[in-house]
Amino acid sequence: MRLITLGSSSAGNGYLLRASTGETLILEAGVKLAIVKQAMNFNLSDITGCLLSHSHKDHSGHVAEYHRAGIKCYMNQHTRDSNFKGYSSYNVFTLRAKHTYQISTFKVLPIELKHDVPNFGYLIDHPESGLFCFITDTHYCTYKFPGLNNVIIEANYSDEIVNKKLAEGTANLYVRNRVIKSHMELQTTLDFLRANDLSAVNNIVLIHLSDSNSDAALFQQQVQEATGKSVYVATPGMDIPFNKTAF
After folding, report:
1. pLDDT for 23
2. What span, in angstroms and rounded, lies between the C-alpha atoms of 90 and 70?
3. Calpha distance 29→7 (Å, rounded)
4. CA torsion angle for 53, 59, 60, 62 (degrees, to 10)?
5. Model pTM?
């Protein structure tokens, strides 16, 4: 399995999970279909589906384009209503939290997260990647997941950076107040990781870092020191092995 990042910011989010057979599951629809096509070498027939977390445009803004290309799209009811309400939507599937779904060789369990719109995280299992979680756009996650082999998780901002900018007068208080109720702060990310058994985890991938309120090198270093695992910060074009084990 390989994890390919197409975008991981407020400008647009999208990730490909590509198995050794070529079969690919897309996470999020926040980047243009042209970017997906290029990453797939213009072969969309290997795409088994696209999972969406929520309705915000940096995560779902291009889902109608994906749908028109024949890609099966999976999402919660609010995201469906926001993008497909009012007309027939063949190949659009509404998921329910805590129900397990089989999307070809990927087993998917949606979980509810804490955002300012209904938002799903996902627990995903595949023979190559093992069990992993995908968590983004939430200010905390109360779940513990036994048996994780990989982790994809948001580390959006640092309180220290935000508070420093507020003191300097270079930060917007409204934006700060919204962010703390809708995105995961670095220490909250670390708390989640410490609360879970990481003994079998191979990779931790940090996603959706704020352009102005994060420090990629610092975040990577702190998570690496806290966990002892291979830690990556998702950037467009990143392509990493995402297997159950390192070998």
Report:
1. 98
2. 9
3. 10
4. -140
5. 0.95
